[in-house]
Design a protein that fits this description.
180 residues; four-stranded antiparallel sheet; alpha+beta; 62% helix; 4 strands
């Protein structure tokens, strides 16, 4: 994290950990001067208001950066790509904000969660014909029960494919983390 911060912003002080306590003590003891203070940029004020749940569209959040086709992993709203120096970040109209790395991580989680929800629905679809077929057999409708059972194999195949996608993706991610 410290290296990431040092790449993203101008650094005022960089000291070894052993010297950090003394530096902090000295800095908090110094009087604060407001002369020559850099005013807060209007764009940052807008972002703060949007993060505090003001209306991003009315405040002009989409004009703060380049509009993208990417969507927010939290609310699925459109993301604006904002460049400040060497740093790139993303902000949606409802106030969610992401660095490049966090956006990638959250998007990956969103895909995995979506695949898990899909797998759950497919497995439910696999179980439902068993239940319906059983009920039809109970009420002496074997032909209808037989027709229902034909869909079971198809549902099993769909579930298998999605399960492989979900859990194959997880094992690939674990392997990549080990090699990083």
């Amino acid at each position: 994290m410290p290296l990431s911060a040092m790449r993203a912003v101008k650094v005022d002080h960089s000291v070894p950990l052993a010297e950090m306590g003394n530096l902090l003590t000295r800095l908090v003891s110094e009087p604060v001067s407001t002369d020559g203070e850099t005013p807060v940029p209007e764009s940052l004020k807008i972002e703060i208001m949007v993060a505090n749940e003001d209306n991003g569209f009315e405040l002009g959040i989409t004009e703060l950066g380049e509009k993208t086709s990417l969507t927010c992993p939290d609310c699925h709203g459109a993301l604006v790509e904002i460049h400040e120096g060497d740093a790139t970040r993303f902000r949606c109209h409802t106030g969610h904000g992401f660095t490049l790395g966090v956006l990638l991580e959250e998007a990956t989680k969103d895909i995995e969660n979506s695949l898990r929800r899909t797998l759950s629905k497919i497995e439910e679809n696999e179980m439902l014909p068993h239940r319906v077929g059983g009920k039809l057999t109970e009420i002496n409708q074997p032909e209808a029960a037989g027709e229902i059972s034909l869909g079971i194999e198809s549902a099993k195949q769909r579930a298998k494919l999605v399960r492989e996608a979900v859990f194959g993706n997880e094992s690939n991610g674990k392997e990549q983390n080990r090699s990083s």
